[in-house]
Design brief:
With 253 residues, the protein is of the alpha+beta class. The protein has nine helices and ten strands. α2 packs across α9. The chain starts with 6 loop residues before the first helix and ends with a helix.
């Protein structure tokens, strides 16, 4: 008897099958990560997320109108031990001058050196995606690291491999097709759900004769939201990432 796959399921299976170049990129990333971990580098995941004003206030606005609202970008980093003991950056989109973008990454590197020693900093590059063509699909020699662009641009800051190495660290870019290898999305989801469910508790109202005002304790709301992603939750998420790493190392090798 003939059996036909559901068209939607067939589409999902087709899209889930990564091409040879993507698989090769993932394998190179994982081998480079394992090489550094064996050399006692601590793994740190650096990420950012956008927080629009409408998320903070809870006001529903049209998509076109929302483009004119302020958007903050939160930059932070975490590991299997929890959030790194570094003062996260909350930047107004487009407000940080270009010459200061590298300074944020330098500050993070200094903090990591003091707290952990040498680290491998894993980020997801939103502007530049490394592609490996047929001519470049050869595996790097044993002991060498995955090539990294001279500068990796996140939405709000610039991460420079030379700055990382000057502080004893290494910088790696997680393949964009393999989101399971990047735990920051879980942390950001936890933060935003906290904001949605608790923003009313951080709002103060003042009613006068002609006007009424609402003041939102924005900084306190962000701090409490970050604290909700506890070290135990980080440990669970990182262990899940490690299982995916082992899975891809076994299946792609």
């Amino acid at each position: 008897m003939q059996r036909f796959a559901n068209p939607l399921l067939r589409h999902v299976i087709h899209r889930g099958c990564c091409d040879a170049a993507s698989k090769q990129q993932c394998l190179q990333y994982l081998r480079a990560l394992r090489t550094l971990q064996l050399k006692s580098f601590n793994t740190i995941f650096l990420g950012e997320t956008d927080i629009p004003e409408s998320l903070i206030t809870g006001e529903k606005v049209a998509e076109e109108a929302s483009l004119r609202w302020p958007v903050w970008t939160l930059v932070h980093a975490g590991s299997s031990q929890g959030w790194v003991p570094w003062r996260y950056k909350l930047l107004l989109r487009g407000d940080l001058p270009t010459h200061q973008q590298n300074g944020v990454f330098q500050e993070l590197c200094d903090s990591l050196t003091t707290t952990y020693g040498k680290c491998v900093i894993v980020i997801r590059d939103k502007r530049h995606t490394m592609r490996i063509g047929a001519k470049d699909s050869k595996e790097p020699e044993t002991g060498t690291l995955l090539p990294v662009p001279p500068a990796i641009h996140m939405s709000s800051i610039e991460c420079c491999p030379e700055v990382a190495r000057a502080n004893g660290h290494e910088l790696l870019v997680v393949p964009s097709s393999y989101n399971y290898l990047y735990p920051m999305d879980v942390a950001w989801s936890s933060l935003k759900w906290f904001i949605i469910n608790n923003r009313k508790d951080f709002a103060l109202k003042s009613i006068e004769r002609t006007h009424s005002y609402r003041c939102i304790l924005f900084s306190d709301l962000i701090v409490k939201g970050i604290e909700k992603m506890t070290p135990n939750k980080w440990k669970v998420v990182i262990n899940r990432v490690k299982r995916w790493e082992n899975y891809y190392l076994d299946t792609l090798s």
